[in-house]
Every structure is written in C-alpha cells, then in structure tokens.
Amino acid sequence: MPSSLLWAVDIFGRVYTLSTVGQYWELCKDTQLEFKRVSAVKQCCWGIACDHQVYTYVFSGDVPIRYQEETYENQRWNPVGGFCEKLLPSDRWQWSDVSGLKHQQLDSFTLPSPHWEWESDWYVDENIGGEPTEKGGWTYAIDFPSTYTKDKKWNSCVRRRRWIRYRRYKSRDIWAKIVSHDEPDQLPDPFNDISIGGWEITDEPLGRLSVWAVSLQGRVWFRRGVNSHNPCGTSWIEMVGEMMMVTVGLNNQVRAAGRVQALLPVLRAVSLDKGTQGLNWEGKGLNSALKVTVSTSPVWQTGSATEFCSASTISVWGIGCDDRAIYFRQGVTPSELSGKTWKAIVSGRESDRSQTGSSTSLLSAGCFFTDDIQNQTSAVIQGDADPSSDTELAVPTSPGSALLGAAAKANLEMKPSANANPPAEPQWINIDLKEAQKQPVLSVSSFADTSSLSSLGTFSVAAEDAYGADEHPLWAWVSGGGCLVDLHSPLKWFTPNLGCLSSSVQSLSLSITPAQTAAWRKQIFQQLSERTKRELENFRHYEQAIEQSVWVKTGALQWWRNWKPHKWMDVRVALEQFTGSDGMRDSILFIYYMYHEEKKYIHVFLNEVTIIVEVLNEAKHSFALYTPERTKQRWPIRLAAATEQEMHDWLSLLTMSCCESRRIQGPPSHHAIWSVTCKGDIFVSEPSPELEAGPQLMPCDQMFWRQVGGHLRLIECNSRGVVWGIGYDHTAWVYTGGYGGGFIQGLASSADNIYTQSDVKCVYIYENQRWNPVTGYSSRGLPTDRYMWSDASGLQECTKTNTKPPSPQWSWVSDWYIDFSPTGGTDREGWQYAADFPAPRSCSLLKCKIVTNGPWLEVPPVTLWDISIIPSSDADDEEAVALWAISDKGDVLCRLGVTQQNPAGTSWLHVGTDQPFISISIGAFYQVWAIARDGSAFYRGSVSPNKPAGDCWYHIPSPQKQKLKQVSVGRTSVFVLDKNGNLWYRQGITPSYPQGSTWDHVSNNIRKMSVGPLDQVWVIADKVQGSHSLSCGTVCHRTGVQPLEPKGLSWDYGIGGGWEHITVRGNATEASRLAVPDTAEENLAVSKEGEDEEGKGKTEHSKTPLMVSESQELDRNAVNC
Fold first, then answer.
1. pTM of the predicted model, to two decimals?
2. At residue 298, does pLDDT exceed 60?
C-alpha cells in the first residue's frame, strides 16, 4: 500500500500528520503558526490559521515545480532597413502572445506571489517543432498570422521568435500564505471553512484541484487555477449562496451546509473553473440526509469523509467531544454507508517513542473477557490491528455529548442503483453519532458485562489526564482527504505500542494457556451463533434483499474526434457496470471531451457494441468500437491509450463487459462464423437462424464479434468443430477448443488449451531506377516518376530507415536482404525490367515477428498456403473429416486421420498436379475444386471417403480474359473470384455433370469470399461506401440466396473495414427459407425484357455489384488495411 497521510490539528493549533505506514504523529514545520482547520489531498494541504488567513502546504519532491513564461517578438521587413521593429498599424504588437492579440513586454511579467522565484533570465528559444532554427531563433512567414518556418524565403515579409523564462515554486515543506493581488495584506473576506478536492474531475487535466472556502459572513469562494504547476492558484471568485461550511468530493460534487438548519445544499459542478454564473444550489432536508448533531458547545468539531474508488471503501473520521480522540469508522462502503464500528486511533507523538508507560495503563489497553474467562486470568494485552474486523468500540462520552465525524462533512458520491425505476435522488442513511451513550465505558468489569464480544478498549479520560496536554494531543480537527486506507493492509494506529509498556505488563500476556484460549473461542462462537439465530427469528417476515451494485472504472485516453479537422484529442472515459435485480450485468461507456470550450460527452451502451477491435497503427496504441449505426456510417469510435498494457487492459475489460451484457461465455460453438483482420486478429460470431432466412432477416451489421487469442492470416472451419488456421509464415495451426488468450485474461479466458503462438511477417520495399544515356541506370528519375524507394504501388515513399514494423507488438528479426523470388523472376542482382514503371525495380524485404498466445497448436512440418475442410457431414464423431490443403510451394495435399476427437489428423497424402496451385475448396458430397497459379480452374473427380484423394483433375475453362485466384464450394454452388475482384457463379452443376457449364458474373469489388454448407455467400468487399466515408475490407452478406436463386439478390453490409478473411463453412444453422422482397436500392429489378428472354429459354440474371464512389475519400477513421 503506498504511503499516505492523515492530517489533524490539536487544540493548540499545531498541525500533525500520521502516515499509513507509521505509528506516530509527526509535527509539521512552521510551528509558529496556529491553525483552526485543514483540508488535505495527496499532493498538498490547505488550512485556515487563527488569523483567518489561508495557507497551503506543498510537499517537496524530486521534480521541481516550474512554470514557463513566454512572449513573442514580432518584426516586419521593409525595403529600407530590412527586418525592424516598425510594424503596420494593422499588425500585432511588437511583443505579444502567440495569438498576437495580447500585449506582453518582457518587463510586464512579474512573479505571482513571494513563493515563486525566477530560475533564469529571458532567453530565445532556438527550436521550432523540435528542429533547430538559425542563430537568433527567428521563424519566417508571408504575413501575420500564418504558418511559420525556420527557412527564410524571398517572400518572407514577417518574422517572430519566442522568448522563454522559467519561474520555480520555492515554498515547499512550509506553510505558504495565500495572498490577494488586489489587497496583499488580507484576503477578500476572512475565511472560516475550507475544503479541497476534485482531483478526479472529468475532462480536467491531471493535477487539477478544486479549492472552496466559506467566509465568516457566509459567502462562498472558489480558488481559480489550482493545479500541480501552480499550487497557490491565481485568484478567488465568489459563488452564489450563503453557506456555513463546504466540502468537495474527488470528482464533480460539492456540498455545503447553509445557516438554516433545514437546508443541506448540493451543487453538482460540471466545470468548477468555468461557467460559474448561473450555478444553483439544490436544497435537501437534513432528515433525508446524514444525521448531523449540531452542538453549540465551543468544543464541537467535525471531520471529513473521502471516497477512494481504488479501495472500494469510504474513509470516515471523527473526533470525540469529551476525550478529543480521533476515531475511524470501520466497514463504511458504498453499499453500507453506516459502517460497523468506531475505532480510536491510539498512536502517540514522535516525541513519545522513548517514554514508557506504567503498569496501570493495562486497564485501558487490555483485552476483556466474560466472567468465566476473567476468573482464570486477571488481565491480557491484545492488540487489534485488523481494520476490517467487526469489533464494536464503545466511545467514552458524557450525557448530552456527541461523536461528530464525517457526517457533518460527507462528500460521499453514490452511484444510482441499477433497478428498473431508480430513485430521483440519492438515498441517505441516518447514522446515530451518539451510539456510544448506550454503553458508556467506566471500568473493565462494566464493559465485560455489557459487551463481551469486544476485544479492544480505549484509554479513559482519567488515564490520559496524568500525561498532560503536551504529551498526548487533544484533537480539534481532522482531514482524511489525502489518506488512503487499504483494507488488505492493516494499520498500526489502533494498537498500543508494546514498547511503551513495562515488562511486568508484557509478562501478563504470556500467562494465557492454550486451554484458556480454546475456552474463550468456544464461548465467543456460541454467543455469535445465538445472536445470529435471534436476529434471523426477529426478521423472518422480511423479504430477501437483492444487492444492486455499480462498478466504475475511469481513465485518460485519446479520441479521434468526429468533426473536422479530424485529429486525436485528450478525453476522460468512464465505464459504469451495474448489476440489476435479475442478476443481469450491463455497462455504459462515457467519453467526456471539450467542444469550443464546452464540456460534452458521448455514451455507448455496451450491449449495443458489435465489436471492439485493435487498430493497425504504427504510432498509436489504438482500438475501435463499432455499433450498428456506426457500422453503417463506416465511422467507429476510435480510442488510443498511452501504453500497450493500458490498451490491452481496456480491451480486455470492454470485451468481457460486452460478453456479460449478451450472456456469451465459453468457447465458440461449432456453427460459429470466424474472421481475420488485416492485422491478423481473430474474431468469432455466433450466427442466428434469422441471419440467412426467416420472416425478419437479421442485418449482419448487428452481429456481435468477440476476439479469440492468436495471430493468423486465414482460417477455415466446419460444423463439427474442426478449425484450422494458417499464419503469415505459412505455419499450420489447429484449434484446441479453448477461448480467450492474448490480452484476454481472467474469467474471459479458459485456464487450459491456451498455448504460445508466434508468427513471422515480411515487410517489402522497392528500389526504383531509371536509365539515362549518360550514366545508365541511376536513382535519378523524372519529376513524374515514383519515389526511388517506395512501396509496391510506388505512391508512398518507403526507405530502409523510416520503415517500421506493422505495429508496436512486432519486432524485427532479420536484416534487409534482396528478394529473388517475386512474380516474373529477377536477374542475378534482383532487378526486374520494363519499358516504364512499375519496373525496373529491386525488391528488398525485412522480417518481423510477433509472439502471443491462444487456443492453437502447431501442425508440423509442412507449411501451407491454403486450406479447406468439408463444410458439414451427418457422420458420427469417429468418421474422418475431409481436409485438403495447398503447400506454400503449390503442392496439393490431403490430410488423413482428421476427426472431431483428433482435429489435427495424422499424416499428409500428396495429390499429383501438373502445375502449382494457389486455392482449393471441398464442398458437400466431396466436390473438390482448385485454382492453379496461372488462373485456371480444375475439378477433382471420384473423391469419396473410401478414396480420399480421387483419381484425376478435370480442367474447367476460366471466364473470358480473366485469371482466377480463389474458389469456394458449398452444398450445390461453386463460386470463384478473379484477380480483378469479380465474383462468378458456376451454372449448370448437377449430380450427373458436377463440372457445370458456364460462368455467370455476380458482382465486382470483392477481395475474399466464403460459401457455407447452406450455399450462403459471404465476402470481404474491397471498398464499401458508408454515409460518412469509404472503408476497405468490409464483411458483406449475400441475401436472397435460394434454390431457385442461388446467386442471391442483394448485398447486406456488415463490419468493416480492415477485414482480410472470413469463413462461414461451419454455419449449418438452417431456418425456414422465405423469399426476400426486393429493395429499391440494392435488389434485383426484374424487367419486362428479362421476362421475354426467359420465354425464349434464356434467363438473364441481374447483377448487383458493390458500387463505390471513386470520388469519396478513404475513411482514415475506419480500421483499414
């Protein structure tokens, strides 16, 4: 547990601190000051001295508190004297701020308070954007204002340079007086109460604090500009309302008590530093709030309460009116605001370490037993250092007194319950602060008779009087805003130091025998059992209570904003997860941002999120959230974290919350749809029967995708749960049946069947040269040529020095070397030649590697290029599953011994071919189709379970002037894809003639495709236009596929972009097939012309291409390849 401090003020005005890792109070410096009250946070402490002036105490640290002052010197060029100080009347000031609107001379800067000192004199900043400028630091532009550059050009008419000076805050580890600029001798009004908080205000920068104060006249003041770089703030501004006391929470809540006892004002501040006009106080009656007993006695004091979300507890402190001791309220949580018991802090001062107590102090620090146990031993010393125990502490009081703690100043922030009808206002609980009067502590025997279960007493007032006020402080004020109490780390505050007791007292604790201890435990157990039975009997007629809890996680991320110009901006995010009365969990993600200096937010219900995917980015650790509406727009919510670990923590938490909202857990089903992004991430979706057919078709943009650990290039599956994948390095992997892996840990990941997986990818760049008659081939090209070092397209410059791995998760594993195996071959030096670009060029490559884990096992030793599994079969689990593959060299292979129990199989069977192949697919009834490297199609005849390799290949002519690159076979349909992105359907396939007759064009703009066991067609579209922008790599579903219309009718657009591969080979979830009505935008229009041709015996099927507006810009916000 990190060390934090509890602050307190004694009756003499001296300020003490007590560390959570210590046991003694330490006196603060500047003992000459006397304080009335203090308010502390972890970074600093503010207080009101007895002169009614405000002071702040800032801790020293390794890093100094520095602030940069800057001003700009502006000059204009004239034909006579060149650049000079004479400017035009319409120009900015000679010395101004960066905007030029504010006059800022060097001598106009002064120190804001005596607590600052200049660290250096003014000097010129000779850098612009991280690059050094010429000597003098001047930057040039055409006119004011404009874009400044370090280079002086012929049309540079104005110039400017920046002057910098640093000031340092010097008043650290001492009390620094807060003075007013208008009246340095005194504040706007003598203050009576002060509170500091707001260190977690949404959308505020880190280090920002909120300081509120109340004057003697009841006026409320707010300190502007308090942050980690300016601990004293800038000025006081007066707020509306007349109050008596104020308290500030850690985020957006400020509460105050008015002079009228029937009013407890509440302010929910959206911006505590801006927009102070028009803020209204919301009144609440005291009877519905925390019960506060207001004493008119001069000894009445209050503490403070602070909520620590990280510890999931609320720390409440109080001061007793009679004994002036500090008490800690134990067991206070958001679900149980009243807590369990008060515990006294018995720590001594730092000066008390060398003192020892007399044996008479045993009565005030001993353990108490019932009469039976007390007869066996006279006294026992027992310390209770566990702050989470249920021990009840009786506080010494007198009639009419009260223990006043955090109830009077409670800044408890309660989240609303997750029931169907949440209350409009927070529910307040009455806490009886006079509970100690019921059982006053007078002696050991009287305490034993009334509370035999107690194990810790307090020092009585009479016992402390012998020490005097100088030795044991009597407390007047306490502040726990900067004190973090961890329930799992016991404190030393509640246990008297045994070193201060005499040896005779310590020897008494050693006289307890094991028999006495056993008897004591037995009696306590019996009394607890009897009390439990009694309480259950009295409340048997009550209904069972169901806990409704709210869990919140906040953090700072960056968001790719919606409006132009699109760029990253800092935001605050908060994930609220609540559990309803039915046990269902749901979550909401809030994103708080600034828009034209106004705070706004967007929220996303996680039960509406369809996918959370990591984005391929070289510079940012970013990820995207999709909803059905944002999928239509091609405009997801993009967020970026500062580190990779932080991004993975958010990805894991959000993914788990989405699965909980949809009640999805465990491994994917056998009918799941698998997909792979261009980054290599694997996603899976559980299909609905309404996805393919039914009265109400489910749009595929509403499908929910969850990530599975691992890294692959492509993946194939079938309805019997056999799933294979191929990595970028052509390594084959088989699915083990687990789930999770990668960054998904904990309950969202299976404990077994997760293994380490690695993948290697090649990054290519091209060196381009042009021939000239003088020097021959050289790197000097024409102005219209491509870059001399570029990517494959030649449109983007890529050199060996600026080429980076695809993402931060990758690392280089080789040096640059020349690729001698590109398509078309090379000469001895690796060059390719052509009449004009894209050649002559030479290809260089560099390998990078990623290491992750997931539910995958390697299948050695053959490396593969493509794979296909028979989609469905009615055979039992023991029958072999047909699996065909193509090696990275183009050989056709058949895997033997693949079953549901052994999905990896046993061995490979080579199938002979005349040329290398690049794609293969096996459909129902063992139909095997393949594509050769030259773009031609082949059909394998006589394949059966008894003859798994078939007998011969039948050549199938390709579509006219087209070269094919992929084939996919379903139950009765065969689709192929050519290298130009056109999708073709094979007509005329029958059981007697499985080769078919002709090719029919279906669509264009296709990157990859997959045909399922029900002949359903899914593709990865190359470009899809949304309502906002254009995205590449989008999942699309062919609707209207029926036996009479096997090509389907239209396209339904799903998740994207950034997708590289999809397979629906396992989706055998069959539903009643109904005709899908045509839509005006995408469906087929059956023309009268087509009816005439059908009468002639020839049917002309309409084509529905994926239309793309070429003028539409690519969506940089989408997850593109």
1. 0.53
2. no
